[in-house]
Amino acid sequence: HIWFQNMLPPINCAIAIFQKLAMEAPVYGWAAVRKVVEKVEETPEFAISCFYYCMDWTSALFNNGWEFASVANEKLVEFSIFAFERIVEFCILAFEKIIEWSTNGGETIKSTLEDGVKYYKNNQKNPRLFSEAYKQLIYQ
Q1: Could you please report the per-residue DSSP string of 28-79?
Q2: Distance between CA atoms of 14 and 11, rounded to whole angstroms?
Q3: pLDDT tens-digit profile of 12-31?
């Protein structure tokens, strides 16, 4: 059966061939599926074997998936505990440093205020100008 009547240029001929194959591919695919179904109907043992093979494969996949999920869960719990411990240690260290810095800052402020009060009291007893005290500090 000739499906093209005229002589076509090579490009058009190739396009026509690919169009014909594309139109007939589903027909050939359906015929192949029908043949496979016929063979399966002829050999029920094959269908049963395929069914059990698929069941075994699904069971193995489920068991491995379950094992993977349980191991992943254990590792996630371990990581969560580790991260929580590190966060608590960091908070304790930060609190200790804040207390240390505030204590040092308070002591510095206290000594500065005491020096200021001492200077003020001394200046009340022996008045002198600030500029004279500044010159004395610079030229000593």
Answers
A1: HHHHHHHHHHHHHHH-HHHHHHHHHHHHHHHHHHHHHHHHHHHHHHHHHHHH
A2: 5
A3: 667 777 788 788 888 888 88
Angle at 101 between CA 96 and CA 106, to 5 degrees: 125
> Under a CB-based contact definition with an 8 Å cutoff, are residues 11 and 19 in contact?
no
Whole-number Å distance between alpha carbons of 88 and 102: 21
| This model's pTM is above 0.70 | no
- pLDDT one-digit tens code per residue, 67-86: 888 888 899 899 999 999 99
Structure tokens belonging to residue 116: 């200021």
Half-sphere CA count of 69, side-chain side, radius 13 A:
6
